Structure formats: structure tokens, C-alpha cells
Amino acid sequence: MKVLVFCEQRDGKLKSHSHEALTVAHRLAGKQAGDVAAVLAGSGVASLAGELKGWGAGKVYLAEASQLGHYNPLHYTSAMEQAVKQWQPQLVLGIASPMGRDLFARLSARLKAPLLTDLVEIKDDMSGGTKPMYAGKVLASVRYKNKGLRLATLRPNVFAATASQGDAQTEALSVSLADERLLKTLEVRKGKSEKPDLTEAARIVSGGRSLGSADNFAILNECAEVLGATVGASRAAVDSGYARHDMQVGQTGKTVNPNLYIACGISGSIQHMAGMRTSKVIVAVNTDPEAPIFSVATYGIVADLFEAVPLMTKKFKALLD
Ligand SMILES: Cc1cc2nc3c(=O)[nH]c(=O)nc-3n(C[C@H](O)[C@H](O)[C@H](O)COP(=O)(O)OP(=O)(O)OC[C@H]3O[C@@H](n4cnc5c(N)ncnc54)[C@H](O)[C@@H]3O)c2cc1C
Fold first, then answer.
1. Is 80 exceeded by the pLDDT of residue 131?
2. Is the CB of residue 275 less than 8 Å from the CB of residue 251?
3. Domain boundaries, the chain
4. Per-residue model confidence (pLDDT) at position 182
5. What is the pLDDT of residues 243-300, one digit of tens each?
6. How far is the CA of 95 from the centre of ligand 1 (A)?
7. What is the second-level CATH architecture of the domain 198-320?
8. H or E stretch including 301?
9. What is the reported pLDDT for 78?
10. Nearest Cα to 71, choosing from 3, 6, 151?
């Protein structure tokens, strides 16, 4: 079974979730590196091809052009279409990141091939898998009905990434770039944080409306600093102007899946939990013992966050120093 993996990169760095997709591809291809190919698109990204060698890719299709420097859905879809034509895979795999969601929906339409999105499990015979639905309330079994080419995106942070040796022979893709008058990226505005993006963070400390001000987020920043965590927020905190929009976790924010999620003064609305309930360990700090967040928490602390969080920070510091 041949699998083609779209490997996302940003600013010349491979996104760690690409390793997860490659690991899954390697498993599905029966651990035959020769049956796994990766697609790298960008500008000045040729050096990343070697890196993919350690992740079980037998071949790397390289689409290099200055117009591919930033994500452009038209160009990237053309690159993927070209790679599919050349590699003739049974499955095209990507990550359900904002870029992956956009790209794979377009690719599915372009190739007239079915797409299963946001999978948390994929069957060895590639007949289907499992995905969370209704904001994570149920896990649905989904399967393809067709016999031909299939597409799938995987939920980030769910599948383990395991290195394995491949050959990673590089082959240049000639991509016919669409007319730039149709769609052109004029500017990319980056978030200010130096910490890993929430979607990639292994540890997250999140705050809700009860923080009361942007300044009070300093309590969470200190805790996050000690833990090497990224700070997140509920929508109420974002709407109140206490936190930036790129910090929002939930249905209309980011879907996260860290090893540790500490929810401070967050009630646990269904919309918030849609973005974090698959976190591996959830710690909730809330004054209300009936708060819904406790229903998904591994550890619950009924306390005022302004007292509990500084104490936790002190304890973490003592343990980790
Ligand atoms: C279409 C739609 C999409 C939405 N998308 C999202 C989304 O993506 N993400 C999201 O988060 N929300 C989203 N929401 C909003 C969501 O419904 C909730 O309103 C929001 O999550 C509540 O945020 P909160 O928990 O911070 O605030 P609240 O619900 O007001 O909860 C505050 C909590 O803090 C506790 N508390 C108060 N003081 C303290 C203290 N000193 N110490 C400890 N605990 C304290 C309270 O007991 C309470 O449980 C969406 C809503 C809609 C309708």
C-alpha cells in the first residue's frame, strides 16, 4: 500500500506533527519505507528533505518556488495533485491543522477522492477510522465507501512519532503555479509568543474569565514559565480582552492535545471542552465544586486560583529546579 504524506513546514522548520503523520504512514505501509513518500512545499526547504530520512520516507517530492514561501491554497493543491499523479498512492495523509484542513478539502475536491478528517485512529487496512464528533462528546467510526484513492487528516498530538530509517530520495516536482491575480499572500502577521504554538505544546496553562484582567494573566505566565508551558485562554477571557485571540482554546479556537492541561478558573463549557478534552492529564482549579470542568479533570482543586496557582508554581519550581 503506497502512502503519500503532506509534510507541513513553517519558516524552513518542519512541523513536529509531520513526524506523527509519517509514523502512521510507515505503519500503514507495513513498515516499508519504499512505500512512503513525503511532499515538501516551500521556498528554500530542500535541506529539510534529509531530515525526513529519519522518519521512514522512501521518497521526498520537493516543490520549491518563491511563490510557495507562504501557504497558498492554489499552489499547494497543485503541488499535491502533481505528487499524487507521480506516486500513485492508495492514501494521502496529512494533519488536521488549519493548513491541513484547508489543503485536504481542496485536494479532495480536485481529485474527486473521499476525505476522512481529524482521525484519532486509522485502520491498518486504511478502510476507515475513528473521529471525535459533537465537540468531542462521541467517537464516530467512519469508513470509506470507494475502492480507489483515499485522503485522511489526523488529529495533531494523538499519534506517537517514532523515528525510522528511510532513503528519502529527493525528486523535484514541477508545479504549474496558478495566476497570482487569483490569490496572493500579501502579508503574514505572526503572534508575539516565543513559546510553542498551543496546537504543538506539550503543556498548557489556561485561564478563564475569572482572571479578571490581562495583568492577572501574569500568574499563569509565571506558572507556565516554570513548566515550560504555553498559556491558553477561554473565549470569555479573550472576549473580555484579557488574552489574545490566538490563545483561545475551544470550538472556535484551537484544538489542543497536550500531556498536561491546567485549566484555571474555567467553567468547562461544552465549547471550551471541545478543544481540550482529549488532553492526557487535565488539572482544574475552580472555586465551584460543581463546575463542569471537573467532569473531565484528572485532578480537581476546589480553590481560589489566585491562591492555588502561585502555590503550585512554587511547588513546581522546587520540584523541577
Ligand atoms: C458558538 C460558540 C462558540 C464558542 N467557542 C468557544 C471556544 O472556542 N472556547 C471557549 O472557551 N468558549 C467558547 N464559547 C463560549 C463558552 O460558551 C463559554 O461562555 C466560555 O467558555 C466561558 O469561559 P470561562 O469558563 O472562562 O467563563 P465562565 O463560564 O464565566 O466561568 C468562570 C469560572 O471561573 C470560576 N471562578 C470564578 N472565580 C474564581 C477564582 N477566583 N478561582 C477559581 N475559579 C474561579 C467560576 O466558578 C466559573 O466556573 C463559545 C460559545 C458559543 C456560543
1. yes
2. yes
3. 3-172, 198-320
4. 81
5. 999 999 998 888 888 999 999 999 999 999 988 988 999 999 999 999 999 999 999 9
6. 28
7. 3-Layer(aba) Sandwich (3.40)
8. strand 299-302
9. 94
10. 6
Burial of 148 (0-12, 13-18, 19+ CB in 10 A): exposed
Torsion sign across C-alpha atoms 43, 44, 46, 50: negative
**284 contacts: CB under 8 Å, gap ≥ 6:** 262, 263, 266, 268, 291, 293, 294, 296, 297, 299, 300, 301
> d(Cα 181, Cα 151) in Å, to the nearest integer?
29
In this structure, which residue's CA is closest to atom 26 in ligand 1? 208
CA of 232 to the centre of ligand 1 (A): 12
254: DSSP letter: B
21-55: pLDDT as tens digits:
999 999 999 877 689 999 999 999 999 988 887 88
Ligand 1 atom nearest to 233, measured from its CA = 11
One fold for 3-172 and 198-320 = yes
Task: Tell me which residue has its CA closest to atom 51 in ligand 1.
Answer: 271
Amino acid at 30: G
pLDDT of residue 316: 97
Q: What is the number of other CB atoms lying within 10 angstroms of the CB of residue 184?
A: 12
* Edge-to-edge strand ranges of the sheet holding 121-122: 121-122, 128-133, 138-143
3-172: CATH architecture:
3-Layer(aba) Sandwich (3.40)
Predicted TM-score (pTM) of this structure: 0.79
Task: List beta partners, residue 282.
Answer: 261
List all residues whose CB is within 6 A of at least one atom of ligand 1. Answer: 208-210, 234-237, 248-253, 265-267, 269, 271-272, 275, 285-288, 291, 304-306
Sign of CA dihedral 23, 202, 94, 41: negative
DSSP state letters, 74-136 = HHHHHHHHHHHHHH--SEEEEE-SHHHHHHHHHHHHHHT--EEEEESEE-TTSSEEEEEETTT
